[in-house]
Amino acid sequence: MTTRIIGIGACVPDTIVTNNDLTAFLDTNDEWIRERTGIGERRVSTEMGTTALAVEAAKRAMEDAGVSPEELDFVILATSSGDNSFPSAASEVQGIIGALNAVAFDISAACSGFIFGLHIAQGFFASGIYKKGLVIGAETLSKVVDWSDRSNCILFGDGAGAAVVSAEETGLIHMLMGTDGRKSKVLDCVGRTLGNCLTGFKPEMGFMKMDGKEVFKFAVRKVPEIVNQILDESGLAKDDIDYFVLHQANMRIIESAVKRLDIPMEKVPTNIERYANTSAASIPILLDEMKKDGKLHRGDKLILAGFGAGLTWGATLIEW
Ligand code: UT7
């Protein structure tokens, strides 16, 4: 048995923050941000936390799939910006939507998280343990970026996307994933620092820090590499693929991948202009838009590919 996405849903906060809005407190401008990143605006949450966004995306995905919460065997939620250290956001989502037969847990793989989640589901389905579940990517990165760091905060947005996955005969065709922990410091956000009865009670929380150039160099090499690898290993050609759904991190990274892979831009949907980088949520939010736009048809072949902090990367070849 393999993983088929049978329902997709997304939820983004209502509030739009444009590049021009940022100039009120940041030394930046719309032209720089658009040219360097392709981003025009992002959603920033003032009321809904990561769990609330995930709940809404999950409900929409279940409605799309025609699946009730009781039918779910697992809820896997990928996030780097959960509302709590514990319990997991997945546990909260499970309780709120009433998926009481499901085991629920979070995974931390940054922007690769949704893809890693699909691969964990694949393990469950291939081994016959479970039959149905939710894989969610949800983030409120607006609370972890440093809003005084102009080379960082302009890149990110809040949102959630969710997929109902089911064990079926066709679906996931091939997958790969990887990590290089030696590069863990190029993009990080430290948790509470040590603060206890011996050191004094002063735990602090960090903000996201990023060596943008390092991440950029890594991404422009890694994205085409993993797309080519998954094609080689599955014996398919670029022309067999209907869509390349790439993590929405920076339009220049996407364009560079398109050039290196020599694939038509029409096969590479993007929405970074409107949502910026929503990390683990970017791929399912994009899939949801594609479905609503009537772009996805049963049998279409898609490569999903992402990279992120860790450093992590992953790619999945699926049949829709
Ligand atoms: O999911 C993974 C997440 N991370 C990424 O995907 C990030 C990958 N990296 C990038 O997207 C790019 O490296 C950035 C967009 C972050 C930065 O672009 P860059 O072309 O590498 O710019 P830079 O850092 O080399 O900065 C060039 C100049 C600097 O000024 P000086 O030193 O040349 O005078 C920066 O201070 O641009 C300046 N700058 C800005 N100017 C206006 C940096 N940020 C801004 C800004 N507005 N927001």
User: How big is the Rg?
Assistant: 19 Å
> What fold name goes in the CATH topology slot of the largest domain?
Peroxisomal Thiolase, Chain A, domain 1
Distance between the termini: 15 Å
Low-confidence stretches: none
Bound molecules: oxa(dethia)-CoA
Main β-sheet, spatial strand arrangement: 1-7-6-4-5
Helix content: 25-40%
What this model shows, in words?
By secondary structure, this protein is an alpha/beta fold. It has two domains: 168 residues, Peroxisomal Thiolase, Chain A, domain 1; 146 residues, 3-Layer(aba) Sandwich (Peroxisomal Thiolase, Chain A, domain 1). Helices cover 31% and strands 24% of the residues. A five-stranded mixed beta sheet has the order 1-7-6-4-5, sandwiched between helices. The chain has a four-stranded mixed beta sheet with strand order 8-13-12-11, sandwiched between helices. The radius of gyration is 19 Å and the shape is globular. It starts with a strand and ends with a strand. The site of oxa(dethia)-CoA has 19 residues, from helix 2 and helix 6.
Features:
Peroxisomal Thiolase, Chain A, domain 1; 2 domains; alpha/beta; 320 residues; globular; 9 helices; 5-stranded mixed sheet; binds oxa(dethia)-CoA; 4-stranded mixed sheet
Brief synopsis:
With 320 residues, the chain is of the alpha/beta class. The chain folds into 2 domains: 2-169, Thiolase/Chalcone synthase (Peroxisomal Thiolase, Chain A, domain 1); 174-319, Thiolase/Chalcone synthase (Peroxisomal Thiolase, Chain A, domain 1). It has 9 helices and 13 strands.
